[in-house]
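Class, look over these structure tokens:
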Amino acid sequence: MAMALRCFRHLPSLLYRSSFTMIRGLPQAPAGCPALLLDGCRQCVHQMLLTRQLATKKAKGKGQSQARVNISAALVEDIISLEETNEDMQAVVEALKEDFSRNLSVRTSPGALDHIIVLTKDGKFPLNQLGQISQKSPQLIIVNMTNFPESTAAATKAIRESGMNLNPEVDGTIIRVPIPKVTREHRESLAKLAKQSTNKSKEALRKVRSKTINQVKKFKNKVSEDTIWLLEKQIQQMADDAAAEMDKLLAAKTKELLG
């Protein structure tokens, strides 16, 4: 780690010679920078120069696309794991996909009830862990609560408040769930839920971004200002990409729901 940080301390002096490097090529690695980091050092310097040039052009002309950053993950692994950050952000996107698929469908199926969370005196449990869910007819789903009869009322309440426009009926330990007719109002309600889910996912995404940037800032006294600037830019870029993917998912789901 000490060797990598030593390399970053030399980056400001390398940047000051940017006009020379653009003509004569990138400088050699600073003294003390191991050969293993030579290519990474050159790549990082080159990326800094390119990014700063294009970012300056962006500031001077509206409507021009901003330069993208692509830092070598191996070069900054002692500061932050960009791969883990990307995985955390993609996990939020995947969770939104799963929510759309499981809970926001025009046609209600037994599987849609599986993961409705039921609050009982012993804690929170998915509905399919408390009752046996089956489809008796195209218009009726049955939830058999024989194994946990004491949770029947809680399960009924969870189904009713699931946001799926369901109105369950209780008969002893049997919960009957009539499947509602698909109306325009129901479709619009589901589309609103899709928007709400997307906003919650974006909030979770912002938390991942903020946590990562705060981690990077802890190294502000150990690496150059340009290194911190580029890392923050790349993290924001990754968050923007994930948010754009969420917007595409929302647009597709909204189109599916509203027809």
User: Anything to note?
Assistant: The beta strands are 117-120, 123-126, 132-137, 140-144, 169-171, 174-178.
